[in-house]
Amino acid sequence: MTDPGSQRLVRAHLKMRHLVLLVALGKHGSIMGAAHAANLTQPAASRLLRELAELARQSWILPPAGSILRKRLATLFLSKGLEPPADTVESTALPLIANLVAGSDMVVALPRELMQPYLDNGSMVVAPFDLGIGKGIYGLITRRGHRLSPGAKAMLEALREVAARRYRA
């Protein structure tokens, strides 16, 4: 497997197994429970947990400090006993993020909807699980004292309806 595309797919598969185990560990609280849930033996799960620590040391693309997603990612790492990544690039520019991910082994956690064009064209793949950090508070920013046009009001109402259906508790 000397093809760079094949090597990237193998690395992506290994990273997905790490993250699946991380999610299972969070749900089950023990290596044995996580190993069973992730369909692994206990020694394999222990090895993957050691590799997870290496993943935490990998280069990450993170949102700016102080952002909600950045805080949630830091909390996720700390809750699993891992230090948040130290080797990071801060960016919210999707074209830059896509280029960094495509040209390196950097890791990024973003909502699927933001990355959909890159998923559609096959330049990225998504791990088949939810980190549990995506549902957040959303807001609409307008000028102080500005009244929304009828079209903007209709759009806001449609967004509220979709959000209510999508993020029902």
Automatic annotation (TrEMBL):
Stretches assigned to the HTH lysR-type domain: 14-52
InterPro entries listed in its UniProt record: HTH-type_LysR_regulators, LysR_HTH_N, LysR_subst-bd, WH_DNA-bd_sf
Pfam families linked: LysR_substrate
Gene3D superfamilies: Periplasmic binding protein-like II
Keyword Transcription regulation: yes
Single GO term (MF): DNA binding
Key words of the record: DNA-binding, Transcription, Transcription regulation
Cellular-component GO terms for this entry: cytosol
Cited PANTHER family: HTH-TYPE TRANSCRIPTIONAL REGULATOR YBHD, NITROGEN ASSIMILATION TRANSCRIPTIONAL ACTIVATOR-RELATED
Protein's name according to its UniProt entry: LysR family transcriptional regulator
Species of provenance: Pseudoduganella lutea
